[in-house]
Amino acid sequence: MLINQKIVDAFNTQIGNELGASNQYLAIASYFENEDLGELANFFFRQSDEERAHALKFVHFILEAGGAVVVPPIPAPRHDIDSAAAAVGMSLEWEEEVTQQIYDLVELCQSERNHIALRFLDWFVNEQLEEVSSIGNLLGIVKRAGENNLLYVEEYISRQGGHPEQETA
User: Tell me: the pLDDT tens digits for 48-76?
Assistant: First the structure.
């Protein structure tokens, strides 16, 4: 096996974290869909899909490295969303938490001197920069627009091709 059991266990935990994030984004997307804010809903449906894809990256890595995948219980997502700013703020908090989880995995792999696992995690470190930046940008836009002007946010996301972090040409 190319990774030890300690790393396998930590990566299995991260599979649950990623699936939990996917479910939370699904709940946020549903909130926006119920509010008739389709662009915001679609943004978070895509985020949900991305988080599931991240979980699958961990699954495939564990299997390729000779470990056993054990998917942990996934806690229910929060549904106490009462505004667009709260929903996007919740997602930013989650991405910051995931960033720390990835950092903890990097530190574990460094302490275990497992360079294969470290190289695998490089992608996630870079991904977290993109995720935190994108969600932070979206939160700023939502706050500037205010709850009564979310259609401007919808238009902005639409102009950006569904990705608020992209600049227009």
Answer: 999 999 999 999 999 999 999 999 999 99
- Whether 164 is covered by a domain: the verdict is no
The dihedral sign for the CA sequence 43, 44, 45, 47: positive
d(CA 41, CA 36): 8
CATH code of the domain covering residue 19: 1.20.1260.10
Is the Cβ–Cβ distance between 160 and 166 less than 8 Å?
A: yes
Residues 6 or more apart in contact with residue 17 via CB below 8 angstroms: 98, 101
72-92 pLDDT, tens digit per residue, is 999 999 999 999 999 999 999
Are the CB atoms for 3 and 116 separated by under 8 Å? yes
Q: Is the pLDDT of residue 18 over 70?
A: yes
> Does 166 fall in a domain?
no
What is the value of pTM for the model shown? 0.90
